[in-house]
TrEMBL record:
Subcellular location: Membrane
Its membrane topology: Multi-pass membrane protein
UniProt lineage: Eukaryota, Viridiplantae, Streptophyta, Embryophyta, Tracheophyta
Protein name (record): Major facilitator superfamily (MFS) profile domain-containing protein
NCBIfam families: SP (TIGR00879)
UniProt keyword DNA damage, yes or no: no
Amino acid sequence: MAPAVVVSGSSENPDFEGRITVYVIVCVVIAAFGGLMFGYDIGISGGVTSMDDFLKKFFPVVYKKKQHVLENNYCKYDNQFLQLFTSCLYLAALIASFAASKVCTKAGRKLTMQIASIFFLIGVILTAGGVNLGMLILGRIFLGFGVGFANQAVPLFLSEIAPTRIRGALNISFQLFITIGILIANLVNYFASNIHPNGWRISLGIAGIPALMLCLGSILICETPTSLIERNKIEEGKKVLRKIRGIENVDDEFDTILHACEMAKQVKDPFRKLMKPVSRPPLVIAICLQVFQQFTGINAIMFYAPVLFQTVGFRDDAALLSSVITGLVNVFSTMVSVYLVDRAGRRFLLLEACVQMLVSQVITGIILLKELKPTADSLSKGEAIFVVIMVCLFVMGFAWSWGPIGWLIPSETFPLETRSAGFAFAVSSNMLFTFVIAQAFLSMLCRLQAGIFFFFAGWIIIMGVFTWYLLPETKGIPVDSMVDKVWKQHWFWRSFMANDDFRTDVKVV
């Protein structure tokens, strides 16, 4: 029996009746394993690429450079093929996201998640069993296909299945599982680094566990009512809606979804519809959030945390342990976002985090600029620990803001007729700039040295200005009411909606 937690709306932002059912929570947890896959991969890459056994086998030139006592502190890992090991996944995910958009619309969110898990399992087999660099890169490409499909389907699934009042919290479970995946990866790397010569194979192989969980678990969960109704399974959609809401009377919400689906059917080419001015507000917001998310510098830190901590003076084991600490901070800070996002709102968390991340980046940059010389000894123990604290402060701010909310807002702001296509642009933008940062970071670290932190700090200032002026609040607004209650009310974006002769008002009771 569902717990008696009734979700109701305010007069300002009407909501639909329904309970927060146990079944919805189970669906959310299973779907969020897609985030665990993604997070584990983010966390595992940096640790594996800092393991001597892995470098000796696949990147002997990097291994020899690392052993050079007088080698430039900032440049000992600068190798394009080493960066390609990490970044090729995101290039593959970029390409896959557009195919995933079509599958998501035509076959549903559930099947898209199953396909993602199968791609990921193939990738795990190839990378963990890799005997040469080509096999390793091919495996990473399959992992990328899995990430592209999962990142397309999971946030949409979560937004469509969640009651409006807790949509933010449930959607952020995707990001929470990403952070848990990063933490698990850091723990695995810490222990696997002492298993010679195949500890790196263990690290890469364990990635198959969340993929298998998603594959098997997705058999048990339902399709979203929106996806079913969109594909003309009207009665099944209404039945599922009753099941996930825990009540019989779902007519108001059902009518709103049905109306949105009827509007969507009139759009034969959603990608062309996205290019029209009326679609510009959610599209620009979605793409900018993904670009900004990467230019905070978070993935540079998460990919290469062990490498970064070795650069500032930690030994191999200590560097991996420091990565575990940042992973713990990441998880617990994301839990803060789960609690606050539907209370404090999206904009408040984004703006607060800009200040916090800016301060930590600037202080870290100043310390390294003054104390870490290219060919001199590393930082003192106290200075290195302080850098870890600043990195944790940065990760903390990101984890309760730009990390989860960067995925949440694009998943909830597109109207149904362009939802899958629009989110495909969001995912592909994220993957493109993740690829750029992953491919360029070690080279940037070599050339900019401590200046790399000031580079990211400059972007954080731009993000804050953008959020203050151009990002509307979406807290508590039903997904299919965004056009009327958000874009048409915003001082800037409403001008793009003036000629919205395609869409009639969505019925909101």
